[in-house]
Specification:
The structure is a homodimer. Chain A contains 6 helices and 15 strands. By secondary structure, chain A is an alpha+beta fold. The first copy, chain A, has one domain: Hypothetical protein, similar to alpha- acetolactate decarboxylase, domain 2 (60s Ribosomal Protein L30, Chain: A, 2-Layer Sandwich), CATH 3.30.1330. Chain A has a 7-stranded mixed β-sheet. In chain A, strands 9, 10, 11, 12, 13 and 14 form a 6-stranded antiparallel β-sheet that branches. Chain A has a two-stranded antiparallel ribbon with strand order 2-7. In chain A, a hairpin with a 5-residue loop joins strand 13 (172-179) and strand 14. The A-B interface holds A 5, 11, 13, 105, 107-110, 162-168, 171, 202-212, 217-218, 220-222, 224, 227 and B 5, 11, 13, 105, 107-110, 162-168, 171, 202-212, 217-218, 220-222, 224, 227. Strand 15 (205-209) of chain A pairs antiparallel with strand 15 of chain B, so a sheet runs across the interface. Chains A, B: InterPro entries: Acetolactate_a_deCO2ase.
């Protein structure tokens, strides 16, 4: 079991022009990691993978477990083995991110970020399911349902990536959330920690698997600048 | 032996501000592939890896075999198993690149490119060895020795990478050359094929290994735009 590598299927960039068709099964994805994040075929919600189980936060607010035969256009996973564990005092997301990058020297290093605990405030959003012919990522996510909670027990999971890899993935933080009672989840927009445990896992290796048998992927004419702008708009 | 993955140590981006210290040994690198390209510690020339042997093209025009304990700041390797083999008629580099991308549908796919044959013309350049404190890549490569040959038997080896990965590596083609008699080598600036065999190997997987124990790497404040411009200037 390789605990030094992030495995990523697809690129964030391929979502930008609307390549939302699933190109890896959840079953196959979970052979590459037990923990991670992603989205489902058709940009159908937000995926949270914890302890070998993959969950979908849907646009109606419901959380369900994903079946092995379901497919994803984009996901990042790893086998969990944190090298840092620390207690978090009261903090907001902006302070948290600055502090984590500085304290654990993440600037140019891939890392998994996991925070388990009680959150005074949580705010998420969930990408709404799209039908082909697909719109662009920015058009598809212009209006998204948002969900909020107070004094919620749950887990933040996701990644920090060096900004050099913006486009291949999200440069900086890309975090999802799932509450312990599976009543609240999605792409994390903001939070305040009440008390929680932070776990950080540094990676020397980033492994990208591309859908090179997918006709739409082969044909797409990507534009790096458009991808950069779209990620900053849609994934922050 | 994994023939579906390109293994890359370091990023092209880290060379841009001048992180030229070697951070992987040639011996370790060759466990990840028998074929590839790179540069040595101190930006000392151009590395060409063929059939499990790593060679250095030096700024004085000499070619020598690299020893296992020598180190590299950046290199890409793979285990050779081409999926395409084709005869090349008379062609120039510009025509060649356009044709290969189109015929073998490379636009968004990583591929190894190998051309064995006789070249009517070959032009290479070789990065000159630097001493710490290092200059930037652009400053270090402002003046570089160039080498030319006519009716040369040899091998072009290198990669095509999707432009989304510019910065992590060179977006587009990055090709080196080594003559059969080891009298001419370096970073390829131009060529005309007399007659040659092209081999293309498509990869679904790109694996980047970062020097996360290197203090200079951890501390560097990279600038994506500067990296993009510098690669276009120094690596074309």
């Amino acid at each position: 079991m390789d605990t030094t590598t992030i495995f990523q299927h697809g690129t964030l960039g391929l979502l930008v022009p609307g390549l939302f068709d699933g190109t890896i099964t959840a079953g196959e994805l979970l052979t590459h990691g037990d923990t991670g994040i992603g989205t489902l075929d058709g940009l159908n919600g937000e995926v949270i993978i914890l302890d070998g189980h993959a969950y979908q936060a849907r646009e109606d607010g419901k959380i369900r477990e994903i079946q092995p035969e379901e497919t994803l256009p984009f996901a990042s996973v790893h086998f969990e083995k944190p090298d840092i564990s620390a207690q978090l005092a009261l903090t907001t997301q902006a302070d948290f991110e600055q502090q984590v990058v500085r304290d654990y020297r993440l600037t140019n290093v891939f890392a998994a970020i996991r925070v388990d605990g009680t959150f005074a405030k949580i705010k998420t959003r969930v990408a709404p399911r799209q039908e082909p012919p697909y719109k662009t990522l920015v058009a598809a996510t212009t209006t998204q349902p948002e969900f909020t909670g107070e004094h919620v027990d749950g887990t933040i999971i996701g990644y920090y990536a060096p900004h050099l890899f913006q486009g291949a993935t999200v440069g900086g933080f890309h975090l999802h959330f799932l509450s312990n009672d599976h009543q609240l989840g999605g792409h994390l927009l903001g939070f305040e920690v009440e008390q929680a445990t932070l776990k950080v896992q540094h990676f020397a290796d980033f492994h990208v698997h591309l859908p090179i048998d997918n006709e739409a992927y082969l044909q797409e004419q990507f534009d790096n600048e458009a991808i950069d702008h779209a990620i900053n708009k849609a994934e922050r």
